[in-house]
Amino acid sequence: MESAGILAGPMLRRVDTESVAIWVATDCPVEVNAAIYCLHTLIQLDTETKTTSIRAGHRLFIHLVQVHGQFPTETLLGYDLLFRVEKKGYNLASLGLIHDNEDSIAYDGLPYPSFFIPASATPTFLYASCRKFHGKGDDALVAADVLLQRETSNLAARPCALFLTGDQIYADDVADPLFPVIRTVAEHYIGKEDLGQFDWRLREEPFSSALTQVNGRQFITERFCRFTSGNASNHLLTFGEYAAMYLLSWSPSMWAGVYLPTFDELVREDGLYLYYPDDHGEIEKCRVRFEEQTGQLLQAIGSLHRIRRLFANVPTYMIFDDHDVTDDWNLSADWRSAVLASPLGKHVIANGLCAYWAFQGWGNEPQRFGEGFLQSMCSHFDGFIADSTSYKVWADRLWSFNGWQFVAPTTPAALFFRYEDNASI
Question: Which among 322, 175, 171, 169 is positioned nearest to 235, based on CA atoms?
Fold first, then answer.
């Protein structure tokens, strides 16, 4: 297992004086343990670790590491993760994640990623939302990383938590150059998903080709899913695509050996859907958009090492908004009824929610998701048939689940919930 064995993370999640949750994704099955240290003395605290692991794809294993103990307040704490693969053991340092440069996930030469638990109601929080991977300009989360780097040991000024209040990904608004990468990553790490089970038209032309081409999904999402996004030409549909979007948006490791295609390569390989193939103006319009988005993506990819470091060093709490699933999600009762009546639309929403749970929701309040919920997710990941009882249980559980809201254990406490078309705290 090399450092690339960690696909994403580690990410600090729910933290209080009795438990610390750490999320990490790997490309192979591993045993994960953890150790917590007081960094000013490097004394290891007495703790007990419980790790829950799920296999979410052929090469995607997601682990939620819960460390239980008595953790002091107003003390700089650090953690290490201990991985065991067969008879070999690794920690964060031996995996190449802690070293003396800006790619390290630890700040200021510390031996471990760090955090602290405030004792009073006067801490500093960070707040962010609406992170579109190909958005224009700098990634605002880089500023948060700069702040933590500057105030690593200054607990009076160092933020103690990060609140992400929606649109951590844009499932409907996916950049043209990113779409082929997402499909490749999804197939490699998660596997193929036959959407034709939910709408037979996807197995026939022109839709079977449009489904795999850049710019080819607007009609499918509008007519077959009954979605209402106006930017759905590359909409995520499968669980693997949602998962790939999270991995590629969070982790520099995912981009090792992966490159964005050029527009000419895309056209040459028949990877671009055109409404009017003989219209030179349409092709040039697609080229301009493609190349502009390529520049925006390259800028975002270049800052991912800082995003990974930020997530490793501050407890992070997340709630969805509509774009995490699809634009206008549950905007009205009519919208919900129309999508629920579409087998494909219902399935895609379930995929989005399943990915939200695996990558975001699970770490907010792990105890909220009981054994039945976990078993339903794991059974689905093992394989599904669209009209089977187990599939219906999985989809209905996600559509009807009303426990996404949670209270972050901060001082003061922060309530996260979603109402109408907005996420709030």
Answer: 171
**What CA–CA distance (Å, rounded) separates 86 from 339?**
45
* CA pair distance 293, 296, nearest whole angstrom: 5
- How many domains, in total, are found in the chain? 1
The reported pTM is 0.96
User: What is the pLDDT averaged over residues 52-75?
Assistant: 96
- Cα–Cα distances in angstroms (integers) from residue 94 to residues 3, 63, 114, 305, in the given order: 8, 19, 18, 18
Q: What's the burial of 234, exposed, middle or buried (CB within 10 Å: 0-12/13-18/19+)?
A: buried
**Closest Cα partner for 120 from 77, 148, 155?**
155
The pair of three-digit structure tokens given for residue 118, joined into one six-digit string = 């405030």
- Residue in this structure with the two tokens 């254990």, named with its chain if needed: 409
- Determine the length of the chain: 425
Residue 113: which of 314, 359, 409 has the closest Cα? 314
Token code pair at residue 81: 């993760």
Domain span holding position 219: 1-425
Does residue 108 come out as left (phi exceeding 0), alpha (psi in the -120 to 50 range) or beta?
Answer: left
- Residue of 160, 152, 144, 151 whose CA lies nearest to 414: 160
- pLDDT of 112 > 50? The answer is yes
pLDDT of residue 419: 60
CA distance 213 to 61: 28
Query: Residue 1 pLDDT > 90, yes or no?
Result: no
Rounded to 5 degrees, what angle do the CA atoms 114, 116, 117 make?
155
